[in-house]
């Protein structure tokens, strides 16, 4: 999956096929302005207003307390890029986008779009990263408000995958103890606990993440079965024979191969016989260009913002084997393309 220039009429089709149109400009100027327009409309509440009923531009501006002329221009942009419709002088919501762009929807990504305002600035440091090779350690410098935005954004992109994974991840039927390392918002633990009534979860997280994560668990009605423990995945003692299941989702791209290998060994010690260690993350392509744009872009993004970038399925399985675990078949999710959960079992 990737974003690219798409012709909308015959002339544009000829221009693209003949290499007459400057695709580098289309895929930068047009692409980043399109992205910012969508993010701005979400931030300003414009989609929420359009989601109630059709409105004129002046009515939208009044409801959102924005400038009339600038609001009109943003609305016209949204129509042009397929994020709003216009008829008889009024603007409305695209039905397919209600699922994603209205806060009342369980599948809403509005909070993730808010986090992307912060990511916008992070990606702006890409040239410095390439020059120096020094990644950004943005987690260590986040304020309480930025942690809130980050947690809510991560919850948004995990809502669907958490339900899907809970339905596919095989865990011991009598499991009662789950450790969720770096579990952030806790949705993966929440959905597993919903599916397995005897299961209780401990989420190991950094101090800045716990307060908001506790609020999310309480809002989901899981405050009694989801507990939080302050700690560091790289240094904390996880115990011995303590857990039936350990999950690590969207975390290993922050660590080096050596750190991930050591984490797998500590997890293996913490599991009971027959216990499961599942690593979930975006997969790095097997070769440059394999898998299209998504794995390539995400590998670069996580290299910029973390310590390593993404890892291949074989690399993740090698950490598990090195810890004495037996890898099982990877679980690929439809709700988050390019992402997989790799379970492995501790022999009984």
Assign an overall shape.
Answer: globular
CATH superfamily of the largest domain: Vaccinia Virus protein VP39
Shape-level CATH architecture of the largest domain:
3-Layer(aba) Sandwich
Beta-strand segment tally: 10
Task: Measure the end-to-end span.
Answer: 41 Å
Strand-pairing-aware structural class: alpha/beta
Order of helices and strands: HHHHHEEHHHHEHEHEEHEHHEEE
Q: Helicity range of the residues?
A: 40-55%
In CATH's first tier, which class of the largest domain applies? Alpha Beta
Short description:
The protein has 348 residues and is α/β, with parallel strands linked by helices. It has 14 helices and 10 strands.
Structure description:
The chain is of the alpha/beta class and 348 residues long. The chain folds into two domains: 10-101, Arc Repressor Mutant, subunit A (Orthogonal Bundle), CATH 1.10.10.10; 126-345, Rossmann fold (3-Layer(aba) Sandwich), CATH 3.40.50. The chain is built from 14 helices and ten strands. Strands 3, 4, 5, 6, 7, 8, 9 and 10 form an eight-stranded mixed β-sheet that branches. Strands 1-2 form a two-stranded antiparallel sheet. The longest helix is centred in the middle third of the chain and has 25 residues, at 144-168. It is globular. The mean pLDDT is 90.
Question: SSE layout and pairings?
Answer:
Blueprint: H1 10-17, H2 23-43, H3 46-50, H4 57-64, H5 68-80, E1 85-87, E2 90-92, H6 98-101, H7 110-123, H8 126-132, H9 144-168, E3 177-181, H10 187-195, E4 200-205, H11 207-219, E5 226-230, E6 243-249, H12 257-270, E7 271-282, H13 293-305, H14 313-322, E8 326-327, E9 331-332, E10 339-345
Parallel strand pairs: 3-4, 3-6, 4-5, 6-7
Antiparallel strand pairs: 1-2, 7-10, 8-10, 9-10
Helix pairs in contact: 2-5, 2-7, 4-5, 7-9, 9-10, 9-11, 12-14
């Amino acid at each position: 999956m990737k974003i690219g220039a798409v012709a909308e009429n015959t002339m544009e089709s000829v221009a693209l096929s003949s290499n007459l149109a400057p695709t580098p400009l289309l895929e930068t100027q047009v692409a980043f302005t399109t992205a910012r327009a969508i993010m701005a409309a979400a931030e300003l509440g414009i989609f929420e207003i359009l989601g109630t009923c059709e409105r004129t531009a002046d009515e939208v501006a009044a409801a959102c307390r924005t400038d009339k002329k600038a609001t009109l221009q943003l609305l016209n942009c949204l129509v042009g890029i397929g994020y709003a419709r216009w008829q008889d002088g009024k603007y409305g919501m695209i039905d397919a986008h209600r699922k994603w762009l209205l806060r009342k929807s369980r599948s809403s990504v509005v909070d993730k779009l808010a986090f992307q305002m912060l990511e916008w600035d992070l990606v702006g440091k890409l040239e410095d990263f390439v020059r120096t090779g020094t990644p950004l350690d943005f987690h260590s410098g986040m304020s309480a408000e930025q942690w809130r935005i980050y947690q809510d954004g991560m919850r948004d992109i995990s809502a669907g995958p958490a339900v899907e994974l809970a339905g596919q991840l095989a865990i011991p039927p009598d499991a009662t103890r789950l450790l969720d390392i770096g579990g952030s918002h806790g949705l993966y633990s929440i959905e597993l606990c919903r599916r397995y009534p005897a299961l209780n979860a401990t989420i190991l997280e950094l101090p800045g993440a716990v307060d908001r994560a506790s609020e999310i668990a309480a809002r989901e009605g899981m405050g009694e079965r989801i507990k939080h423990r302050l700690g560091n995945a790289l240094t904390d003692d996880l115990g011995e024979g303590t857990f039936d299941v350990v999950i690590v989702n969207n975390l290993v791209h922050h660590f080096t191969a050596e750190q991930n290998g050591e984490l797998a060994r500590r997890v293996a010690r913490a599991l009971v016989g027959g216990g499961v260690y599942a690593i979930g993350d975006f997969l790095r392509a097997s070769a440059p260009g394999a898998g299209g744009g998504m794995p390539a872009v995400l590998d670069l993004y996580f290299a910029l913002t973390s310590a390593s970038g993404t890892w291949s399925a074989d690399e993740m399985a090698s950490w598990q084997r090195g810890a004495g675990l037996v890898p099982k078949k990877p679980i690929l999710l439809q709700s988050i393309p390019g992402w997989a959960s790799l379970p492995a079992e501790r022999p009984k």
